[in-house]
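Q: I have three molecules that I believe assemble together. Could you output structure tokens for the complex as a whole instead of separate predictions?
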Amino acid sequence: MTDTASLLLNWYDKHHRILPWRITPAEQARGMAPDPYRVWLSEVMLQQTTVEAVKAYFNKFTSQWPDISALAGASQDDILRAWAGLGYYSRARNLKACADKIMAGHGGVFPRELAGLRALPGIGDYTAAAIAAIAFNLPHAVVDGNVERVVSRLFCLTTPLPAAKAEIRIRTQGITPAERPGDFAQSMMDLGATICTPKRPSCFLCPLNEHCLALKNDEPQRLPLKAPKAEKPLRTGMAFVAISENSRVYLQKRPEKGLLGGMSEVPNYFAPGADKADLSRAPFATDWRYQGDITHVFTHFTLVLAIYRADNLPEHSDTGGWWVAVDKLKGEALPTVIKKAVAQVLPTAFNNTERKPADRNA
DNA sequence: TAAACGTGGTC
DNA sequence: TGACCAAGTTT
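A: Yes, here they are, computed for all three components at once.
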């Protein structure tokens, strides 16, 4: 084992984070083993998503669907409803497809080989290696954004990302130990998340500070270098909140693929440079009233929607959608941008009505 | 290879 | 306060 791996594992034994999906080194010593289902679920949820955002969703999913069989028994719509708000909804669609494939093609058991994992929907290079290392203790190089940052600094690699990925992978493989590769992978990610942070790294606390070439040669916070990002264009449009004579809201389903694929929505239209007052874009003709704009920032564009409202509509059923009571909207598969649009008209629609015990007598 | 694909938090 | 960032994958 390299000095680096040894130092990092010792640091991890003392300073590892406690996370709902994690088996700690002490628990492993007592014979507990990671559940591949929980490792997989957490890794998919954590793709481009913060630990804090994932915790509640992970707990909800594992309560509702404790194993791969239970998850495969759920419908895609069930899963999208539970995933709503977490973003990158293709992950939820692939989660269902992956569960189905494991049940139908692998006897309900996760493959242990990297290639078998890599072939499953929603599992790419990172997630395949992470599952193999964490769940099966196989010494694969697990390279996520944290590891890219740690390794770039440790070896002072000055090629900008993403071109540097190949070299980072080789360097990571070179320091990955045959013993405890799962803990090693998690130690690299914990180090990146808590010490070797993007902006002001705490190098004085770092177990690798005497080995870090960026710290020796340079300012580590400058690394990794990254290629410049494309500018974010603006799209404009309209969203239509239709309320029936029974105080229900009109929803429809988005196409299965692409932006917010498979999720539910209120009728809307947007495009670069689109008119925000073109009522021919409404799902049906009625007395639409303008309620102000909302702005929502996606990864690759900014969206400004003019919100329109109509009331006391008959609950027609000939336009492909359905009507949902306001107090049931929380349970629908609505992405955040659509919740914003609805909340512009119905500000309390998504309020948390749960009360903490202490509030009950207040 | 580059673009599509969400959201919420931080400084 | 807008830009950047977070355990990436797919096409």
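A: One point stands out. Residues 42-54, 88, 90-91, 94, 121-127, 130, 142, 144-147, 185-186, 189, 192-193, 198-199, 229, 232, 297 of chain A lie near DNA strand C (CB under 10 Å from a C1').
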